[in-house]
Fold:
Amino acid sequence: MTAAVPYGALEIAAAVRSGATTALAVTETVLAAIARVDPQIGSFTAVTRERALAEARAIDARRAAGEALPPLSGVPYAVKNLFDVAGLPTLAGSRINASHPPATADATLVARMREAGAILAGTLNMDEYAYGFTTENTHHGVTRNPHDPACVAGGSSGGSGAAVAARLVPLALGSDTNGSIRVPSSLCGVWGLKPTYGRLSRHGSFPFAASLDHVGPFAATLTDLAACYDVLQGADPGDPACAQRPLEPVRHLREQGANGLRIARLGGYFDKYLTPAAEAAVNSTCSALSVTRTVELPAAALGRAAAFIITASEGGALHLPSLRARRAEMEPLSRDRFVAGAIIPAAWYVQAQRVRSWYRDGVRELFRDVDVLIAAATPCPATPVDTEWLEIAGQRVPLRPSLGLLTQPISCIGLPVLVAPIPRAGKLPIGVQIIAAPWREDLCFRVAATLAATGAATAPLPRIHA
Structure:
Protein backbone atom coordinates (compact mmCIF):
# COMPACT_ATOMS: atom_id res chain seq x y z
CA MET A 1 0.00 0.00 0.00
CA THR A 2 1.10 3.57 -0.53
CA ALA A 3 2.44 5.67 2.33
CA ALA A 4 -0.73 7.79 2.17
CA VAL A 5 -2.90 4.87 3.26
CA PRO A 6 -2.33 3.17 6.65
CA TYR A 7 -2.23 -0.61 6.75
CA GLY A 8 -3.53 -1.66 10.17
CA ALA A 9 -7.28 -2.16 10.53
CA LEU A 10 -7.67 0.19 13.48
CA GLU A 11 -5.38 2.75 11.84
CA ILE A 12 -7.51 2.67 8.69
CA ALA A 13 -10.76 3.02 10.65
CA ALA A 14 -9.36 5.97 12.62
CA ALA A 15 -8.12 7.67 9.45
CA VAL A 16 -11.49 7.23 7.74
CA ARG A 17 -13.37 8.56 10.76
CA SER A 18 -11.09 11.60 11.02
CA GLY A 19 -11.20 12.36 7.29
CA ALA A 20 -7.45 11.83 6.88
CA THR A 21 -8.36 9.41 4.10
CA THR A 22 -11.51 7.95 2.57
CA ALA A 23 -12.81 4.43 2.48
CA LEU A 24 -12.79 4.69 -1.31
CA ALA A 25 -9.10 5.64 -1.41
CA VAL A 26 -8.22 2.74 0.86
CA THR A 27 -10.29 0.31 -1.19
CA GLU A 28 -8.84 1.41 -4.52
CA THR A 29 -5.33 1.04 -3.13
CA VAL A 30 -6.08 -2.45 -1.85
CA LEU A 31 -7.65 -3.58 -5.12
CA ALA A 32 -4.62 -2.33 -7.02
CA ALA A 33 -2.29 -4.17 -4.62
CA ILE A 34 -4.22 -7.41 -5.04
CA ALA A 35 -4.00 -7.13 -8.84
CA ARG A 36 -0.26 -6.43 -8.67
CA VAL A 37 0.86 -8.81 -5.91
CA ASP A 38 -1.55 -11.73 -5.67
CA PRO A 39 -0.52 -13.42 -8.94
CA GLN A 40 2.74 -14.23 -7.14
CA ILE A 41 1.05 -16.04 -4.23
CA GLY A 42 -2.43 -17.08 -5.38
CA SER A 43 -4.42 -16.25 -2.27
CA PHE A 44 -7.58 -14.89 -3.94
CA THR A 45 -10.07 -16.93 -5.95
CA ALA A 46 -12.43 -13.99 -6.54
CA VAL A 47 -12.05 -10.24 -6.14
CA THR A 48 -15.35 -8.55 -5.26
CA ARG A 49 -14.38 -5.26 -6.85
CA GLU A 50 -17.80 -3.75 -7.48
CA ARG A 51 -19.10 -4.71 -4.05
CA ALA A 52 -15.99 -3.32 -2.36
CA LEU A 53 -16.26 0.02 -4.17
CA ALA A 54 -19.98 0.28 -3.38
CA GLU A 55 -19.40 -0.49 0.30
CA ALA A 56 -16.59 2.07 0.44
CA ARG A 57 -18.73 4.79 -1.14
CA ALA A 58 -21.50 4.01 1.35
CA ILE A 59 -19.10 4.48 4.28
CA ASP A 60 -17.87 7.78 2.87
CA ALA A 61 -21.45 8.95 2.37
CA ARG A 62 -22.27 8.16 5.98
CA ARG A 63 -19.30 10.17 7.17
CA ALA A 64 -20.23 13.10 4.91
CA ALA A 65 -23.72 13.01 6.43
CA GLY A 66 -22.24 13.33 9.91
CA GLU A 67 -23.15 9.81 11.05
CA ALA A 68 -21.13 8.02 13.73
CA LEU A 69 -19.21 5.27 11.94
CA PRO A 70 -18.99 1.64 13.13
CA PRO A 71 -15.68 0.27 14.47
CA LEU A 72 -14.15 -1.18 11.29
CA SER A 73 -15.32 1.46 8.84
CA GLY A 74 -13.29 1.39 5.64
CA VAL A 75 -11.21 -1.64 6.67
CA PRO A 76 -10.63 -4.12 3.81
CA TYR A 77 -10.90 -7.84 4.55
CA ALA A 78 -11.34 -11.12 2.69
CA VAL A 79 -12.86 -14.50 3.50
CA LYS A 80 -12.03 -18.15 2.90
CA ASN A 81 -14.20 -19.25 0.00
CA LEU A 82 -16.31 -21.57 2.15
CA PHE A 83 -18.20 -18.53 3.52
CA ASP A 84 -21.35 -17.52 1.66
CA VAL A 85 -20.97 -14.22 -0.18
CA ALA A 86 -24.15 -13.00 -1.82
CA GLY A 87 -23.89 -13.31 -5.60
CA LEU A 88 -21.02 -15.82 -5.64
CA PRO A 89 -21.08 -19.63 -5.60
CA THR A 90 -19.62 -20.92 -2.33
CA LEU A 91 -16.68 -22.89 -3.70
CA ALA A 92 -15.26 -24.47 -0.55
CA GLY A 93 -12.15 -24.97 -2.66
CA SER A 94 -13.88 -27.39 -5.01
CA ARG A 95 -14.61 -27.75 -8.69
CA ILE A 96 -18.00 -29.32 -8.03
CA ASN A 97 -19.33 -26.38 -6.02
CA ALA A 98 -18.45 -23.97 -8.83
CA SER A 99 -21.57 -25.26 -10.62
CA HIS A 100 -23.80 -24.46 -7.64
CA PRO A 101 -26.12 -21.43 -7.71
CA PRO A 102 -24.71 -18.23 -6.20
CA ALA A 103 -25.37 -17.60 -2.52
CA THR A 104 -28.45 -15.45 -1.96
CA ALA A 105 -27.19 -13.94 1.31
CA ASP A 106 -23.97 -13.40 3.19
CA ALA A 107 -22.81 -15.77 5.92
CA THR A 108 -23.47 -14.47 9.43
CA LEU A 109 -19.84 -13.47 10.01
CA VAL A 110 -19.64 -11.71 6.63
CA ALA A 111 -22.81 -9.82 7.53
CA ARG A 112 -21.33 -8.84 10.90
CA MET A 113 -18.19 -7.53 9.23
CA ARG A 114 -20.34 -5.51 6.83
CA GLU A 115 -22.35 -4.10 9.75
CA ALA A 116 -19.06 -3.13 11.42
CA GLY A 117 -18.18 -1.07 8.31
CA ALA A 118 -15.56 -3.43 6.85
CA ILE A 119 -15.11 -3.68 3.07
CA LEU A 120 -15.11 -7.13 1.44
CA ALA A 121 -12.26 -7.37 -1.06
CA GLY A 122 -12.81 -10.97 -2.14
CA THR A 123 -12.73 -14.68 -1.39
CA LEU A 124 -9.66 -16.77 -0.65
CA ASN A 125 -8.16 -20.08 -1.69
CA MET A 126 -8.25 -23.21 0.47
CA ASP A 127 -7.80 -26.96 0.41
CA GLU A 128 -10.83 -28.59 -1.19
CA TYR A 129 -13.63 -28.96 1.36
CA ALA A 130 -11.09 -27.89 4.04
CA TYR A 131 -9.47 -31.36 4.06
CA GLY A 132 -5.79 -30.46 4.01
CA PHE A 133 -3.00 -28.48 5.63
CA THR A 134 -1.12 -27.01 2.64
CA THR A 135 -3.57 -25.33 0.17
CA GLU A 136 -2.09 -27.15 -2.80
CA ASN A 137 -5.37 -27.00 -4.66
CA THR A 138 -5.47 -28.68 -8.07
CA HIS A 139 -8.58 -26.72 -9.12
CA HIS A 140 -7.64 -23.19 -8.05
CA GLY A 141 -3.87 -23.40 -7.80
CA VAL A 142 -1.32 -23.50 -5.01
CA THR A 143 -1.33 -20.67 -2.48
CA ARG A 144 2.31 -19.77 -1.86
CA ASN A 145 3.96 -18.41 1.24
CA PRO A 146 4.68 -14.66 1.01
CA HIS A 147 7.91 -15.20 2.98
CA ASP A 148 9.15 -17.68 0.37
CA PRO A 149 6.93 -18.43 -2.65
CA ALA A 150 8.68 -21.77 -3.12
CA CYS A 151 6.98 -22.88 0.11
CA VAL A 152 3.40 -23.62 1.13
CA ALA A 153 1.22 -21.18 3.06
CA GLY A 154 -0.40 -23.92 5.14
CA GLY A 155 -4.04 -24.87 5.14
CA SER A 156 -6.77 -25.34 4.85
CA SER A 157 -7.19 -21.56 5.27
CA GLY A 158 -4.00 -20.93 3.32
CA GLY A 159 -5.42 -18.07 1.28
CA SER A 160 -6.46 -16.29 4.48
CA GLY A 161 -3.02 -16.59 6.07
CA ALA A 162 -1.18 -15.60 2.89
CA ALA A 163 -3.39 -12.58 2.10
CA VAL A 164 -2.81 -11.13 5.58
CA ALA A 165 0.90 -12.01 5.60
CA ALA A 166 1.36 -10.33 2.21
CA ARG A 167 -0.34 -7.20 3.59
CA LEU A 168 -3.04 -7.36 0.91
CA VAL A 169 -5.72 -7.04 3.60
CA PRO A 170 -5.29 -6.44 7.34
CA LEU A 171 -8.00 -8.96 8.28
CA ALA A 172 -9.30 -12.27 6.95
CA LEU A 173 -11.73 -14.96 8.05
CA GLY A 174 -11.06 -18.69 7.98
CA SER A 175 -12.19 -21.97 9.46
CA ASP A 176 -10.48 -24.51 11.70
CA THR A 177 -11.56 -28.14 12.08
CA ASN A 178 -8.22 -29.73 12.96
CA GLY A 179 -5.86 -26.76 12.71
CA SER A 180 -6.84 -24.88 9.57
CA ILE A 181 -6.50 -21.42 11.13
CA ARG A 182 -3.51 -22.26 13.30
CA VAL A 183 -1.34 -24.00 10.69
CA PRO A 184 -1.39 -21.14 8.13
CA SER A 185 -1.04 -18.57 10.93
CA SER A 186 2.12 -20.37 12.02
CA LEU A 187 3.61 -20.87 8.57
CA CYS A 188 2.72 -17.37 7.30
CA GLY A 189 3.75 -15.56 10.48
CA VAL A 190 0.45 -13.85 11.36
CA TRP A 191 -1.89 -13.76 14.36
CA GLY A 192 -4.80 -16.20 14.25
CA LEU A 193 -7.64 -17.18 16.58
CA LYS A 194 -9.55 -20.44 16.83
CA PRO A 195 -12.19 -19.55 19.41
CA THR A 196 -14.00 -21.98 21.70
CA TYR A 197 -16.25 -24.40 19.79
CA GLY A 198 -19.61 -22.65 19.52
CA ARG A 199 -18.32 -19.15 20.21
CA LEU A 200 -18.74 -17.78 16.66
CA SER A 201 -21.54 -18.55 14.25
CA ARG A 202 -20.84 -20.92 11.36
CA HIS A 203 -24.16 -20.11 9.66
CA GLY A 204 -23.54 -19.66 5.96
CA SER A 205 -20.22 -21.49 5.93
CA PHE A 206 -19.76 -24.75 4.05
CA PRO A 207 -19.29 -27.56 6.61
CA PHE A 208 -16.56 -30.17 6.88
CA ALA A 209 -17.08 -32.04 10.16
CA ALA A 210 -19.92 -30.41 12.07
CA SER A 211 -18.89 -31.58 15.53
CA LEU A 212 -15.38 -30.13 15.06
CA ASP A 213 -15.80 -27.08 12.80
CA HIS A 214 -14.79 -23.64 14.12
CA VAL A 215 -14.50 -20.25 12.39
CA GLY A 216 -12.28 -17.33 13.30
CA PRO A 217 -10.12 -14.36 12.24
CA PHE A 218 -6.56 -13.70 11.05
CA ALA A 219 -4.73 -10.37 11.46
CA ALA A 220 -1.29 -8.84 11.09
CA THR A 221 -1.46 -7.26 14.57
CA LEU A 222 -2.88 -8.46 17.85
CA THR A 223 -4.96 -5.32 18.35
CA ASP A 224 -6.58 -5.82 14.96
CA LEU A 225 -7.27 -9.48 15.76
CA ALA A 226 -9.01 -8.45 18.98
CA ALA A 227 -11.08 -5.77 17.25
CA CYS A 228 -12.19 -8.22 14.55
CA TYR A 229 -13.05 -10.96 17.05
CA ASP A 230 -15.16 -8.53 19.08
CA VAL A 231 -17.40 -7.61 16.11
CA LEU A 232 -17.84 -11.29 15.17
CA GLN A 233 -19.21 -12.36 18.55
CA GLY A 234 -22.88 -12.95 19.32
CA ALA A 235 -25.50 -15.67 19.46
CA ASP A 236 -27.05 -16.85 16.21
CA PRO A 237 -30.09 -19.13 15.93
CA GLY A 238 -28.90 -20.00 12.43
CA ASP A 239 -26.13 -22.16 13.91
CA PRO A 240 -27.46 -24.67 16.46
CA ALA A 241 -23.95 -25.08 17.90
CA CYS A 242 -23.50 -21.33 18.51
CA ALA A 243 -23.68 -20.65 22.25
CA GLN A 244 -26.21 -18.26 23.74
CA ARG A 245 -23.59 -16.18 25.53
CA PRO A 246 -23.29 -12.43 26.05
CA LEU A 247 -20.58 -10.51 24.23
CA GLU A 248 -17.22 -10.76 25.99
CA PRO A 249 -14.99 -8.10 24.39
CA VAL A 250 -11.21 -8.56 24.49
CA ARG A 251 -10.02 -5.42 22.71
CA HIS A 252 -8.89 -3.61 25.87
CA LEU A 253 -7.33 -6.58 27.70
CA ARG A 254 -3.80 -5.76 26.61
CA GLU A 255 -3.45 -3.39 29.58
CA GLN A 256 -3.79 -6.35 31.97
CA GLY A 257 -1.16 -8.52 30.32
CA ALA A 258 -0.24 -11.91 31.72
CA ASN A 259 0.30 -10.71 35.28
CA GLY A 260 -1.05 -13.19 37.83
CA LEU A 261 -1.80 -15.93 35.33
CA ARG A 262 -0.64 -19.50 35.90
CA ILE A 263 1.09 -20.40 32.63
CA ALA A 264 2.67 -23.75 31.77
CA ARG A 265 4.42 -25.29 28.81
CA LEU A 266 2.92 -28.40 27.26
CA GLY A 267 5.46 -31.21 27.38
CA GLY A 268 5.36 -34.92 26.58
CA TYR A 269 3.55 -35.38 23.26
CA PHE A 270 3.91 -31.67 22.46
CA ASP A 271 7.68 -31.71 22.97
CA LYS A 272 8.19 -34.93 21.04
CA TYR A 273 7.17 -33.69 17.58
CA LEU A 274 9.30 -30.56 17.25
CA THR A 275 11.98 -29.57 14.81
CA PRO A 276 14.70 -27.30 16.25
CA ALA A 277 12.89 -24.24 14.87
CA ALA A 278 9.64 -25.12 16.64
CA GLU A 279 11.44 -25.95 19.87
CA ALA A 280 13.30 -22.63 19.77
CA ALA A 281 10.01 -20.76 19.27
CA VAL A 282 8.47 -22.40 22.33
CA ASN A 283 11.62 -21.79 24.37
CA SER A 284 11.73 -18.10 23.48
CA THR A 285 8.03 -17.70 24.24
CA CYS A 286 8.33 -19.35 27.62
CA SER A 287 11.38 -17.24 28.39
CA ALA A 288 9.50 -14.03 27.55
CA LEU A 289 6.68 -15.10 29.87
CA SER A 290 9.02 -16.43 32.62
CA VAL A 291 7.38 -19.85 32.33
CA THR A 292 9.25 -22.62 34.15
CA ARG A 293 6.52 -25.19 34.67
CA THR A 294 5.81 -28.06 32.24
CA VAL A 295 2.62 -30.13 32.21
CA GLU A 296 1.20 -32.83 29.96
CA LEU A 297 -2.20 -33.31 28.37
CA PRO A 298 -3.49 -36.76 29.28
CA ALA A 299 -3.62 -39.01 26.23
CA ALA A 300 -3.07 -36.29 23.59
CA ALA A 301 -2.25 -38.94 20.98
CA LEU A 302 -5.58 -40.66 21.65
CA GLY A 303 -7.33 -37.32 21.28
CA ARG A 304 -5.71 -36.84 17.89
CA ALA A 305 -6.66 -40.37 16.83
CA ALA A 306 -10.28 -39.70 17.80
CA ALA A 307 -10.20 -36.48 15.77
CA PHE A 308 -8.95 -38.38 12.71
CA ILE A 309 -11.84 -40.85 12.86
CA ILE A 310 -14.51 -38.22 13.56
CA THR A 311 -13.23 -35.95 10.80
CA ALA A 312 -13.02 -38.69 8.19
CA SER A 313 -16.37 -40.20 9.11
CA GLU A 314 -18.36 -36.94 9.17
CA GLY A 315 -16.60 -35.61 6.07
CA GLY A 316 -17.07 -38.86 4.17
CA ALA A 317 -20.77 -39.00 5.03
CA LEU A 318 -21.27 -35.39 3.94
CA HIS A 319 -19.63 -35.93 0.55
CA LEU A 320 -20.92 -39.44 -0.16
CA PRO A 321 -23.26 -38.28 -2.97
CA SER A 322 -20.36 -36.56 -4.76
CA LEU A 323 -18.10 -39.56 -4.17
CA ARG A 324 -20.68 -41.72 -5.89
CA ALA A 325 -21.55 -39.43 -8.79
CA ARG A 326 -18.62 -37.04 -9.36
CA ARG A 327 -15.58 -38.66 -7.78
CA ALA A 328 -13.31 -37.85 -10.75
CA GLU A 329 -13.92 -34.12 -10.23
CA MET A 330 -12.72 -34.14 -6.62
CA GLU A 331 -9.30 -33.12 -5.32
CA PRO A 332 -6.90 -36.09 -5.58
CA LEU A 333 -5.16 -35.11 -2.33
CA SER A 334 -8.36 -35.57 -0.30
CA ARG A 335 -10.68 -37.74 -2.40
CA ASP A 336 -9.42 -41.13 -1.19
CA ARG A 337 -9.54 -39.98 2.44
CA PHE A 338 -13.18 -39.05 2.00
CA VAL A 339 -13.82 -42.49 0.48
CA ALA A 340 -12.12 -44.15 3.45
CA GLY A 341 -14.12 -41.99 5.85
CA ALA A 342 -17.40 -42.92 4.20
CA ILE A 343 -16.86 -46.62 5.00
CA ILE A 344 -15.70 -46.25 8.63
CA PRO A 345 -17.83 -48.58 10.80
CA ALA A 346 -20.35 -46.79 13.01
CA ALA A 347 -18.84 -48.51 16.06
CA TRP A 348 -15.51 -46.78 15.40
CA TYR A 349 -17.17 -43.39 15.20
CA VAL A 350 -19.10 -43.96 18.42
CA GLN A 351 -15.96 -45.10 20.21
CA ALA A 352 -14.03 -42.07 18.91
CA GLN A 353 -16.69 -39.77 20.35
CA ARG A 354 -16.47 -41.61 23.69
CA VAL A 355 -12.69 -41.20 23.73
CA ARG A 356 -13.10 -37.54 22.83
CA SER A 357 -15.47 -37.01 25.77
CA TRP A 358 -13.17 -38.82 28.20
CA TYR A 359 -10.16 -36.90 26.93
CA ARG A 360 -12.01 -33.57 27.19
CA ASP A 361 -12.89 -34.24 30.84
CA GLY A 362 -9.26 -35.02 31.66
CA VAL A 363 -7.99 -31.85 30.04
CA ARG A 364 -10.57 -29.72 31.85
CA GLU A 365 -9.28 -31.11 35.13
CA LEU A 366 -5.84 -29.78 34.17
CA PHE A 367 -7.28 -26.27 33.96
CA ARG A 368 -8.11 -26.36 37.65
CA ASP A 369 -4.41 -25.88 38.28
CA VAL A 370 -3.30 -23.81 35.29
CA ASP A 371 -4.78 -20.90 33.33
CA VAL A 372 -2.90 -20.97 30.03
CA LEU A 373 -0.84 -23.54 28.13
CA ILE A 374 1.93 -22.88 25.61
CA ALA A 375 2.81 -25.21 22.72
CA ALA A 376 4.19 -25.00 19.21
CA ALA A 377 1.54 -24.57 16.52
CA THR A 378 3.31 -26.61 13.84
CA PRO A 379 6.21 -29.05 14.10
CA CYS A 380 8.20 -27.08 11.52
CA PRO A 381 8.20 -23.84 9.51
CA ALA A 382 6.82 -23.79 5.97
CA THR A 383 8.11 -26.52 3.67
CA PRO A 384 8.56 -26.46 -0.14
CA VAL A 385 5.52 -27.01 -2.33
CA ASP A 386 4.98 -30.70 -3.18
CA THR A 387 6.94 -31.92 -0.14
CA GLU A 388 5.72 -35.41 0.74
CA TRP A 389 7.66 -36.37 3.87
CA LEU A 390 8.85 -34.87 7.15
CA GLU A 391 11.68 -36.22 9.28
CA ILE A 392 10.75 -35.74 12.93
CA ALA A 393 11.23 -37.54 16.24
CA GLY A 394 13.39 -40.11 14.48
CA GLN A 395 10.57 -40.97 12.09
CA ARG A 396 9.76 -40.30 8.44
CA VAL A 397 6.11 -39.26 8.41
CA PRO A 398 3.81 -37.94 5.65
CA LEU A 399 4.03 -34.17 5.75
CA ARG A 400 0.51 -33.03 4.91
CA PRO A 401 -1.37 -34.70 7.81
CA SER A 402 1.60 -34.20 10.14
CA LEU A 403 1.34 -30.42 9.97
CA GLY A 404 -1.64 -30.91 12.29
CA LEU A 405 0.20 -33.03 14.85
CA LEU A 406 0.07 -30.27 17.46
CA THR A 407 -3.29 -28.70 16.60
CA GLN A 408 -5.63 -31.69 16.33
CA PRO A 409 -5.45 -32.71 20.00
CA ILE A 410 -6.64 -29.20 20.93
CA SER A 411 -9.45 -28.62 18.42
CA CYS A 412 -10.78 -32.11 19.12
CA ILE A 413 -12.11 -30.76 22.44
CA GLY A 414 -12.96 -27.25 21.35
CA LEU A 415 -10.50 -25.21 23.41
CA PRO A 416 -9.79 -21.57 22.45
CA VAL A 417 -6.35 -21.07 20.91
CA LEU A 418 -4.56 -17.93 19.80
CA VAL A 419 -1.53 -18.34 17.53
CA ALA A 420 1.27 -15.83 18.10
CA PRO A 421 3.80 -15.40 15.25
CA ILE A 422 7.41 -15.81 16.37
CA PRO A 423 9.83 -14.04 13.99
CA ARG A 424 13.16 -15.63 13.12
CA ALA A 425 15.74 -13.26 11.66
CA GLY A 426 16.38 -14.13 8.03
CA LYS A 427 14.34 -17.34 8.31
CA LEU A 428 10.76 -18.45 7.87
CA PRO A 429 8.51 -17.62 10.84
CA ILE A 430 6.70 -20.13 13.00
CA GLY A 431 3.90 -19.81 15.53
CA VAL A 432 3.09 -20.87 19.07
CA GLN A 433 -0.32 -21.82 20.43
CA ILE A 434 -1.68 -19.97 23.47
CA ILE A 435 -4.36 -22.29 24.85
CA ALA A 436 -6.98 -21.68 27.54
CA ALA A 437 -10.04 -23.34 29.06
CA PRO A 438 -13.37 -23.10 27.20
CA TRP A 439 -14.77 -19.56 26.89
CA ARG A 440 -11.52 -17.98 28.17
CA GLU A 441 -10.34 -16.31 24.99
CA ASP A 442 -9.66 -13.32 27.25
CA LEU A 443 -6.76 -15.17 28.86
CA CYS A 444 -5.28 -16.02 25.46
CA PHE A 445 -5.35 -12.34 24.52
CA ARG A 446 -3.80 -11.28 27.81
CA VAL A 447 -0.82 -13.59 27.32
CA ALA A 448 -0.51 -12.61 23.66
CA ALA A 449 -0.51 -8.94 24.67
CA THR A 450 2.55 -9.51 26.86
CA LEU A 451 4.35 -11.25 23.99
CA ALA A 452 3.46 -8.45 21.59
CA ALA A 453 4.49 -5.72 24.03
CA THR A 454 7.93 -7.27 24.55
CA GLY A 455 8.46 -7.94 20.85
CA ALA A 456 8.65 -11.67 21.47
CA ALA A 457 5.78 -12.14 19.01
CA THR A 458 5.18 -10.03 15.93
CA ALA A 459 4.13 -10.57 12.32
CA PRO A 460 7.27 -10.00 10.21
CA LEU A 461 7.09 -8.23 6.87
CA PRO A 462 7.41 -10.88 4.14
CA ARG A 463 9.45 -10.84 0.95
CA ILE A 464 6.30 -10.46 -1.15
CA HIS A 465 4.02 -7.73 0.14
CA ALA A 466 1.78 -4.90 -0.93
User: Anything to note?
Assistant: The chain has one domain: 9-454. The first helix runs from residue 9 to 18. The chain has a mean pLDDT of 96. The domain at 9-454 is CATH 3.90.1300.10 (Amidase signature (AS) enzymes).
